[in-house]
Amino acid sequence: MQMNNLYEHFGCTSKEELYQKVTKDDDSVRSLVDFIDFSKGQMNSKEVGISSPQDFIEFVTKNKMPSKDEMVSVFCSTKSEPLHLSRYKFHDQDDLKRALKEGLHAGGVSMFHLSNSSMSTGKEAEMTNYFKTFGIDVIDGFSYNEFSDTITSSKEMIPYSRDKYAPSVNNVAESEGHTKTAYNLQNGINTYQGFDEFTSFFANQEIFGCNMLKDNAKLKKSLKVGYQYDWQESFGVIACDADGKVLAVKELFKGSPNASIVDKKVFTKELLSREDVSKVAVFHNHPSGIPEPSAEDRNVTKGLKEISEKLDVQLLDHFIVGKKNVYSFAKDIPEYVSSNEDYRKSIEKQSKTKGSKQHACEMEL
């Protein structure tokens, strides 16, 4: 009988125990770790499919690199669209079968793989032939050198610095439609009882102690992992001290699949709950997957800004979580949130950094 409880499925009794296994990268929760890695890899990805070595490197570098006994495979559609990411121990037959099963269930017909540079050429060829046996076309293989921190395509043989393709922290609104993942359609992890509870707990644990300026990318990725599959709108608050350090993350409201209820009294009470709150950000998700703000979102943000500033608290940002990206009011419509030069400059710097990296890529292509 198939278990439908997330904690039972992974042999845990609580969200705290499961979180510890995830943070320790325990083999027993590998599929959940893969889900989290894939979610981070999707962040701000504008490419429809992987059409060049640079596309693959930009996608995969957002994830944990393979250790000496591991490989990372990205299974793709007929259009080379990423459908599923799997990290596995290549000498473990059961782990290898798991990766194959998940890739096929996701609808994968082709794949890219990334190995550690310590893997022998013969072993890499063996892995390529393994997947080809089952009708999966291996488009390209890549090697990660942990000493030089570079990734090299076996076809192009040009080492690319991973730092150049570091995850962007720029927020952009998602265009119409979104890429569905293996986890949404096939794996079913997001349908398990306790999934929403765990992912929101994961996000809160990852965000607590971060700095709104320095750790902005981690914060947004954590929100995406935590709320992108929530079937109803969730609204929360991120409370910070004067330096922008996150003091608390709290989910305040649960709404319907297409609306959330924000009670001004509850929000005010939360801001007044501790004296060291100087700055705040709010977030909510769009179950539709498209994070473009609605007219109601704009009105609510205006109201929260007014409340915050009357209490001498700055509303730094309002994040809207979608299936692929996280929208930022501070970046796209800054007049709706409080004016904070440090935060604004941080966002502008991040945008310029992303722009220069994209230009460099275009020059090389």
Across the major sheet, the strand order is 2-1-3-4-5-6
Helix content: 25-40%
Q: What is the string of helix and strand elements?
A: HHHHEEHEHEEEHHHEEHEHEEHH
What would you call the structural class?
alpha+beta
Tell me about the biggest sheet? 6 strands, mixed
Total number of strands: 11
- Strand fraction equals 15-25%
* Shape type: elongated
Kindly provide the radius of gyration, computed on alpha-carbon positions and rounded to a whole number of angstroms.
21 Å
Characterise this structure.
The structure is a single chain. By secondary structure, the chain is of the alpha+beta class. 39% of the residues lie in helices and 20% in strands. The chain has 13 helices and eleven strands. The strands form two sheets. The protein has a six-stranded mixed β-sheet with strand order 2-1-3-4-5-6, sandwiched between helices. Strands 8-7-9-10-11 form a five-stranded mixed β-sheet, with helices on both faces. A hairpin with a 4-residue loop joins strand 4 (137-145) and strand 5 (150-153). Helix 2 crosses helix 8 (195-207) and helix 10 (264-271) runs parallel beside helix 11 (295-310). Residues 168-186 and 356-365 have low confidence and may be disordered.
